[in-house]
Amino acid sequence: PAIVMWAVGNEWNYNGLYAGLPFPQALQRVKTAIDMIKQLDGMHPVATVYGEVPPADIVRELANVDAWGINRYSGIDFGDLFARFAPISDKPMFLGEYGADAFDARRRRPDQREQAEATTALTRQIMGASSLRPGGVCFGGFIFEFADEWWKDGAGRPERHDVGGVSPGGGPYPDNTFNEEWWGLTQVDGTPREAFWAYARASVPGADAPDLGSALLRGARETGLAFREPMRRAACGAHARCSGRLGLCCPPRPGANDEACCGPPGMEVTSLYT
Strand pairing of 109-110 and 67-71? Predict the structure, then answer.
C-alpha cells in the first residue's frame, strides 16, 4: 500500500503515548522514533500530532518533524489556531482531528443538523487557511470520524449506542461535550448523516472540483442503490457479531445473526444477501 507519510503519536502531550508517560519521557520517545524513521526511510516525511498548537520550545526540540498535526476541538471556530502556528514554525501543518459529534447533551437527543453545520464551517476554515492560498499554512485535515464507534463509552455496552460524554469545559459544537459514540459522518451501519453530505460538498482549494455530495447521491440513484440497505452492513463490517474479530465479516442477509458472520480470516462470501 502507498505511504503518504509517517505519523508518530497522537495528541501524546495529553495521553503520554497512551501509556500515561510523563511528558518529558513521551517527548523523548517521540523524538527517538522520528530519528529512527529518518534513518530507515529517507523517502517519506514524518509528522507528529499534538493536542492544540505546540509551544515554540517543543517545535525546536523536534526539529526533525517535517509536518505538524494539530487536534483541535473549539466549537464551530478554530479561532487563532492558524495565526498562532505561523510564527513558531515554517513547517506545514494539518488538522489531525477536527469535527463535532451528532448528539446534543444539553437536550439529550441526536442533532444531525448542528453536526453538519460544524462540519461545513470548520472545513471551510481549513480550506481558507490552505497553503495553496497566499499566506496559508494548512495543507488539510482529517475529520473525526467516518463511522460511529459503539465501544467507546466506558460505562456503556458495545452492542448499544450509549450517550455518555465528557465535558472538559471546551469542546465540540454546540454543547462542548464529547459524546464519544456519536462522532461518525455515518451511523454504525453506514447510513449517512447530514454531516456526510456536508463534508462531501466541501470545495477543494486550487481545483475545479465537482460537487462530490451531489455526484455520490446521483450515482447511488442511477445504480439503483439509493441506500436501500445500510451501506456499511451491505459492505460488511458493522454486524454485532463482528465486535473484536478479525477477518471478513458479512451477514448473509439484513438483520442476520448467525454463524456465517465473522468466520475465520480469509473466509470467502460470494453473496451478501440470499
Answer: unpaired
Residue-wise pLDDT for 195-251, tens only, equals 999 999 888 887 665 566 566 666 655 655 444 444 444 444 455 555 544 334 444
The b-or-e profile of 49-71 (16+ CB within 10 A means b, else e) is bbbebbeeebbeebeebebbbbb
Query: For residue 125, which amino acid is it?
Result: Q
CB-side exposure of 261: number of CA atoms within 13 Å?
Answer: 24
Phi, psi dihedrals of residue 116, rounded to the nearest 5°: -65, -40
pLDDT-based confidence at residue 167 (cuts at 50, 70, 90): confident
pLDDT per position as a tens digit, 246-267: 334 444 455 554 444 444 444 3
User: CA 246, CA 198: separation in Å to the nearest integer?
Assistant: 32
Output the nine-digit C-alpha cell for 198: 456536508
Task: Tell me the DSSP string of the chain.
Answer: -----EEEEESHHHHIIIII--HHHHHHHHHHHHHHHHHH-SSS-EEEEEESSPPHHHHHHTTT-SEEEEE---BT--TTHHHHHGGG-SS-EEEEEE---SEETTTTEE-HHHHHHHHHHHHHHHHHTBTTSTT--EEEEEES-SB--TT--TTS-TTS----EE--SS-BTTTS-EETT---SB-TT-PBPHHHHHHHTPPPTTS----HHHHHHHHHHHHT-TTSS-HHHHTSS--GGGTT--S----SSTT--STTSS-STT---S-S--
In this prediction the pTM is 0.79
**Placement of cell 495521553 in the chain:** 15
